[in-house]
Amino acid sequence: MHPAVRRFPLSVQHVFAMFGATVLVPILTGLNPGATLIASGVGTLLFHLITRGKVPAYLGSSFAFIAPLTLYVTKHHTPNQAVTGLISVSIVYGVFSALIAAIGFNRVKRLIPSVVVGPVVAIIGLSLAGTAVATDASTHWDVAIVSLAAAIISAVAGPRQLRIIPILVGIVVGYVYAIARGLVHFGNASASPWVQFPSFHAPAFSWQVVLAMAPIALVTMVEDLGHMFVLNEIIDRDVTQDPGFSSILLGNGVATLISALIGGPAETTYAENLGVLAMTRQFSSRIIQGAAVIAILLGLFGKFNAVIQSIPAAVVGGIGILLYGMIAAMGIRHMIEAKVDLTNTKNLIVVAVIFIIGIGAKNNGIAIATIVGLAIYWLLPDRTQTGAEDGGQAAHRS
């Protein structure tokens, strides 16, 4: 069997993992969902080109820019100005990429202790718990449970062929069960065109839009760093060293630039797909690149797009419980491996504050929690005189 054929079901899993969140952003902001899917696929391929295929990450729609995009696209009806704002975001990424390449990421990394990295990785998963449980799974708990159980059984007790695609198994079984329950409606699929092309918008300069969007890039860069810490834990290799965090930022910036020109939102690495990596232990970048190609085709072919959109939220919620929980567990594992001393009061305070802010804050909670955790760690005096008082002060090690 050709390697591409063997990789296809693995790529499909990643498409399912990113699809809901990626198309939700254009639905909320007034952008074109088809263009957004195409942008995510093209952006991911460019990201992999710039990072030389060494970072198995998928790039999808960033939620951090929902408010300004909604304001300028839906409310003010100025999508051309929104394009300019997103271009300014990509420029910020490029500037910081060059800065980190010049000063060296190791200098930045030394400022990030393990007592901050661990809980930040954990809240990346935990912050999605409400979406998985309250928003999605709760719509039909029986469907969610069937999907979750199928994925777990496939991963733990299934034959080897199924153990590497448990997410796909869970989605298919949950989808079939939902059809039997009469919860799937194919009306949109029959009404959708076979082929649909995105509408393009030329940039129209506006300082107001630039000032509204460009600073948000600082927030998403912090989230990117957190995602890379998760990825390091999963693949047991430090991608911030090879190919380097500067390359990762540059890849994200270029992906956002192309997305803006195509008519999509800002791009960011996706925690949902990191969960798939953690579950399947299949780390080939070719698999992610395959998912990107599928996303581009889905963006062009309306009927296939509509069929995927017909998957009930409860199926996605059941799978999300597993994926997001895997990410949270990675953060806890990191603190254990780094021997973070939680009998140290300062360390305990850092972890506590990061957890509550990261989970409780509705907008950009992960980035805010990271910044606050670092501020507490470096500004709060440590009265402990034990040998473990640094709380895993060394930055993340892979």
TrEMBL record:
Matches recorded under NCBIfam families: ncs2
PANTHER family, A to Z: PURINE PERMEASE C1399.01C-RELATED, URIC ACID TRANSPORTER UACT
Protein's name in the database: Uracil permease
Claim: Ligase is one of the keywords in the record: no
Keyword Transmembrane helix assigned: yes
Membrane topology classification: Multi-pass membrane protein
Family statement drawn from the similarity comment of this UniProt entry: Belongs to the nucleobase:cation symporter-2 (NCS2) (TC 2.A.40) family.
GO cellular component terms attached to this protein's record: plasma membrane
Single GO MF descriptor: xanthine transmembrane transporter activity
Keywords: Cell membrane, Membrane, Transmembrane, Transmembrane helix, Transport
Transmembrane intervals: 12-28, 57-74, 86-105, 112-134, 140-157, 164-184, 204-222, 243-263, 283-301, 313-336, 348-380
Coiled-coil boundaries: none
Localization in the cell: Cell membrane
